[in-house]
Amino acid sequence: MLKLSSLFQKPQSAPQEKPTTPAPQESLWSTLAEGELLIDMYERPDAIVIRSLVAGARPEDIEISLHNDMLTIRGKREEIEEIYENQFLYRECYWGGFSRTIILPAHVDANRIEAFFKNGIMMVILPKMQEDNAINLQHREETEKESEKIFDEDEEE
Known about the structure:
- The chain is of the alpha+beta class.
- The chain has a domain at 34-131: Immunoglobulin-like, CATH 2.60.40.790.
- Helices cover 15% and strands 29% of the residues.
- It has one helix at 133-156, and strands at 35-36, 40-43, 47-53, 63-67, 70-77, 96-103, 114-118, 121-127.
- The model is unreliable at 1-15 and 18-30 (pLDDT under 50).
């Protein structure tokens, strides 16, 4: 298996010594148990759409779950090579587990949720549930008629 990092290596004239044990992790990221996934969420007439940058994560390393009106996206990014702390000049990328739980603004159909990955971007399409308002209105009208009868009966007594 060819690692992406091997494509960028320069030929070395003499072997370089590598530390035998990694330097202690003192970066900001090492203090976090899990990173937060950044998202964009927008609404279409037929669906809620969530998109996120998930560069470095593989589709099989991402789990999407729905519980009532809460969607959770959880995954991980694994480093492709071992780099010791003292080798870093800048360290801004987060590697490891990440998650995000979102309260959805509308009821969605869990059986029709789709997720797509392309060029390090994940899109989750959450089709909205079709609600039948006529049933609710009919129920309200019947309830009002019943309550009128009850009030009318009370007045007659």
